[in-house]
Request: fold
Amino acid sequence: MDFCCSYNCTSPISGPSPPVFSQLIQTLIAAQCSLGKIDDYPPDRTSEIMANPEESFDFIIVGGGSAGSVLAARLSEQSDWKVLLIEAGTYPSAKSDVPALFLELQETSEDFAYQVEPQSDFCLGMKNKRCKWSKGKVLGGSSTINAMLYIYGNKGDFDSWAAEGNEGWGYEDVLPYFKKSVNYPHEVIQKHGDKYYGSEGPVNVRSYNYTESNIQEIFLQAAAEKNIPILDAFNADRFIGFGRAHGTLDKGHRNSAAKAFLSPIKNRANLFVMTSTRADQILINDHRANGIRVTLEDGRTVDLKASKEVIVSAGSIASPQLLMLSGIGPKKDLEELGIECKADLPVGENLQDHLIWLGIQLEFRNDSYQENITASYLNDAYNYLAHNKGGFAGIGGIDLLGFVNLDDPLSPYPDIQFHNVFIPQGHATVMETLLKAMGLAQDLRNDLINLSKDINTIFMCPTLLKPKSIGEVKLRSKSPSDPVKIYTNYLIDERDKQKLLKAVDFVKDFVDTEAFKKLGASLRSFIIPDCKNFQYDSLQYWECNLKHMSGTIYHPVGTVRMGIPENPKSVVNSKLKVIGIDKLRVIDASIMPDITSGNTNAPTLMIAEKGADLIKEYWRNENNF
Reply:
């Protein structure tokens, strides 16, 4: 980026039109240089803090991701509160601003790139037979590296939380907090009303500026043939159907939580941000949290004090890790590692995730297809830099989503979500990027990449919305630098496997429509080496396919479960306070009792919005812990 911003033309064009060419070039350079600007965000104040490390903060927030960004913005609205935000990563890159490049952010410095523990009958088609879990290690967290899809979940999700005793977490209770964050387009609110959609929040929620419209129209036509509702806007009062989702976007650029919540307040004097800083331990004295021990980028360790509260918002993997390192967790496990147990709570348990299956694919050939791929990418790059439109402003058609219930067609709530991906023939690089991001082993990757050179590919990927299989997160050691052990336990409950296998018949029926017949699409007979002994399309084949071609859609939740204190499964109460420890809250996706029915970033923002109000209400009333 430094090069492009300091570019000087050494061979000017002669003739009457140089100003036009020069202006065009400078416009494109300026557009590229506007991506990933560090000065869009609050400055790193580590050196200032280290000059007086004994000084206390009112609130320390651990984790500058989706939840942490919201909390930092909302709590620092109180000008007499001194707020510290600690982030393990650094500032978003230029690449992260471009929607189409989201898959290329995995396994970079902006990604924690966790490896889950091996499972004997799952993730078998992945590299080293292990699924990998990406998580944002950057301001904005996973909202900086995800696909930006903005989905609330449904009424049943949150009403079930309330039914478990979590007062104030029913659908009607949380809906105002969804609305508080967002700025929906005027036309959506005009058509559907303002009950479900906000217009004054910092998060711009927009349509993607580019989609594979032809393929998406075919999907919608097929759904209509099957009497599946067509949703022109998600997040309202209907939860079953196909439609184009909105994303957290602003004029063709990513609108991460950091960009939405932190950029507008980057000069707020009472907000302090530390990047490239690892939180190692919550400082607890007499069952009260007093601060955080951190390790800086240069290796120095320092204790930072909080006079009011410590708030852990590090996500469903790092939040339980920090709690357990601090002595909050299962007593037996902690003592085996030599960690003094300060609160015997089921931290790390109740891990839930949305499993996605890549093994159901369609294909069709276009014999008249001719495209200069290089020219196509150059045109897309120009359209993006000049107009914020084109291929780089979209996510390859993944915004076309489908929600269905395979067990009960009359239910208002889905049990399967379809993520649909279109790879045009000839776009082998796109196929390679997708499969690498999903962690597929090289042999399977190569076969699909070769196929994509001459044939169009559609992935119809069923995603299990309400898994019965529950995993857990455990410490590997008492060292903060050691990665945790992640046990996904995918498909250990037979009901999950049977639910996903039903998706095969749904896809077969879906493709048996005039819309797909006109396209010439058919179910792909995809050969998986370890499944070659099973006849294609047999139950045994699909079971084998499922074990090899499934992985995560990066939605881990639940490891610091919210519930009533009397419930032995609870870690935090409905006010998000850690049970048995004063002045300590956890506010992020890890508090979900049960996973929501859709992409989880929107509910995470909601949790943080509500959490901020809970904190303000508590201190406004001048209560004591």
The two ends are 49 Å apart (CA to CA). Residues 1-13 have pLDDT under 50 and may be disordered. The longest strand covers residues 301-312.
